[in-house]
Amino acid sequence: MHVILHLVFVLAAWRWGDWRNWRKYYSTILYLIVVDLLYNFLTYNYPLWKFNPVSFDKYIYSNHTLITLGIDFVNFPAIVLMYLGNFPKGKVKRLFYVLAWVSLNSIIEFASLITIKGISHYNGWSLWWSLVLNLIFYFMLWVHYLRPLLAWGISIGLLVIFILYFGVPIQAMK
Question: How many domains are there within the chain?
Answer without folding.
Answer: 1
